Amino acid sequence: MIWNRKHLLDLQSLSAEEIIHVLDTAREFKAVGERSIKKVPALRGKTVINLFVEPSTRTRISFELAALRLSADVINFSAEASSLKKGETLKDTARNLEALNADIIILRHGASGAPHFLARFLGAHVLNAGDGAHEHPTQGLLDVFTIREKKGRVDGLNVTILGDILYSRVARSNIWALTKLGAKVTLCGPPTLVPKSFESFAPNVRVTWNIDEALRDADVINLLRIQHERQKASMFPSTGEYAALFGLNTARMTKVKSDALIMHPGPINRGVEIASSIADGPQSVILEQVTNGLAVRMAALYLVNGGASLQVAG
Amino acid sequence: MSSLLLDSAALQRTFARMAHEIAEANPDVGSLVLVGIQRGGVPVARRLAFELGQVFGRPVPCGTLDVTFYRDDLNQRTAPTVNPTEIPGDIQGKTVVLVDDVFFTGRTIRAAMDALHEFGRPSRVQLAVVIDRGHRQLPIRPDVVGKEVATLLSQSVQVRCSQGGVDDGVFLRDTATLSSAPSVS
User: Fold this and answer.
1) Hey, is the C-beta of B150 within 8 angstroms of any chain A C-beta?
2) Which parts of chain A are beta strand (E)?
3) What residues of chain A lie within 8 A of the CB of B84, using their CB?
4) B 53-72 residues with CB below 8 A of A?
5) Do B79 and A305 make contact, defined as CB atoms within 8 angstroms?
6) Do A194 and A306 reside in the same domain of the chain?
7) Nearest to residue B79, comparing CAs of A46, A266, A50?
8) The domain containing residue A216 runs over which residues?
9) Sheet holding B32-37, edge to edge
10) Which of these, A300, A237, A227, lies nearest to A267 by C-alpha position?
11) What's the complex ipTM?
């Protein structure tokens, strides 16, 4: 059996074979989403809890819909209106949710490693929906799913990730998934947000602060938003200067390969990291990423749910 | 230990006879749809569709159905690999012939009927299988059978009909562990 993991915590620890198995499974779930009845009974009777300690709308909705389409019951738990505000620890909150017989807990948290922490003592399955600047595994999976679907392969492609790398869990999950599947990754952005040390992350990762060089050979350009909420200090002079130096505008777009994919995990800031006409243009697959995210999250829920029984049977 | 139940030629004659039985029961070719159950039923359905095309003189639509999400044992095993489902056109009001290679407990067919009805309401659903090996656990019976074979729970039956080549045939095997529970296939 290719997949026997109980949790999905990061992509760093997955093998290329496991990543491909998730992508293949997601392809069948995407087909389910295109039927008139978009729901299957694979998680019937299971309870899924969206534990979102850090606010999120799109990822929470995507996970919620994914669980509903698998026929699970879903509870949404957000930090703003919860016991965490009253001083309860994450561990106690999670234990309380488990006492309600939750089968799967999806955690979004501002602290790196929070899902790994829960996984150490919970009987329930844990899915990481983004932990600090560490990883966002389902985003990394949906990005490689989209690339594979559009390009037919990941191996050998030049993928440029442009923007705030330092604070980006999306960048880290992408780097792991892409390099494991054989892509060459170029990281680009202001030096304060793209440290040279990222080159030691994995083989086939290079850092450049020259945007023309980063765009020239790219088969895929993944644009990341500047995460003002995570930056402790001012990492560049102004939004206007960032847009001028590193934004993907129409002038730069003329130098990009005509079949390069333009990707963005959202939410996009039009006129900052990406020009409106490019976000809405023919090379943009931004909305398809959203559709694919649903299929990938259905696959992740389906696979981790099967991951426990092996231990029971074993 | 492996013994040959049907050789390539006998299997071909079996397909031809099954196709004629399906044609006899369903003279209205316009409403006929074959659906092979993933994975063993898929190549069988393609072969039967080819034979039926010869009988009727026009192609018979043939699809695939993956029943994984509808299985009753999902909680007792690691998540099975999911294969493509492709239902050709609208099955509303059609006669759907579900096709599988080996008919065993009946649980796969129960799941298949659930899965199929997500795509519409056929006027009739029939079942065609190459081998009926017995050991039913549910009240389901096939409409068209290639061959009935008495088997032990410890044995497995393999229908090989990949490309219609010389390697085709039906084989009966003694599996290694006698105590293992029968797999639903």
Assistant:
1) no
2) 47-52, 73-78, 104-109, 125-131, 158-162, 184-188, 205-208, 220-223, 261-263
3) 28, 31
4) 66, 68-70
5) yes
6) no
7) A46
8) 137-287
9) B62-65, B32-37, B95-103, B124-132, B144-148
10) A227
11) 0.85
Distance from CA of B167 to the nearest CA of A (A): 27
Chain B nearest CA to A267, separation (Å): 32
What are the helix (H) ranges across B57-162? 107-117
Number of H helices, E strands in chain A: 12, 9
Are A96 and A170 within one domain? no
Rounded Cα gap, residues A19 and A25, in angstroms? 10
Q: Answer yes or no: A136 catalytic.
A: yes
Residue B148's region, left for phi above 0, alpha for psi from -120 to 50, else beta, is beta
In this predicted structure, the answer to whether residue A163 has a pLDDT above a threshold of 80 is yes
B79 touches chain A (CB under 8 A): yes
Does the domain at residues B2-70+82-174 carry the CATH identifier 1.10.760.10? no
Residue with tokens 């490309």: B163
Q: Using CB atoms within 10 A of its CB, is residue A283 exposed (0-12), middle (13-18) or buried (19+)?
A: middle
Task: Tell me the pLDDT tens digit for each residue of A169-200.
Answer: 999 999 999 999 999 999 999 999 999 999 99
Task: Give the one of A2, A31, A309 whose C-beta lies nearest to B75's C-beta.
Answer: A309
Candidates A125, A136, A148, A184; catalytic one? A136
- Tokens standing for B179? 């105590």
Query: How many structural domains compose chain A?
Result: 2
In a domain, residue A9? The reply is no
Reading chain B (185 residues) residue by residue, the pLDDT tens digits are 789 999 999 999 999 999 999 999 999 999 999 999 999 999 999 999 999 999 999 999 999 999 999 999 988 878 999 999 999 999 999 999 999 999 999 999 999 999 999 999 999 999 999 999 999 999 999 999 999 999 999 999 999 987 657 789 999 999 865 444 454 44
Average pLDDT, chain A: 93
Interface with B, mutate which of A302, A303, A312 (most B CBs under 10 A): A302
Give the pLDDT confidence score for residue A312 in this predicted structure.
Answer: 39
Please check whether residues A47 and A117 belong to one and the same domain: yes
Q: Tokens in use for B82? A: 């999911």
Same domain assignment for residues A132 and A183? no
* Nearest Cβ partner for B78 among A3, A31, A35: A3
CATH classification at residue A80 = 3.40.50.1370
Distances (CA, A) of A79 to A33, A56, A60, A75, A115: 30, 11, 13, 13, 15
Could A25 and B70 be called an inter-chain contact, meaning their C-beta atoms sit closer than 8 Å? no
Note whether A194 and A240 are same-domain residues. yes
Q: Select which of A6, A108, A109, A172 is catalytic.
A: A108
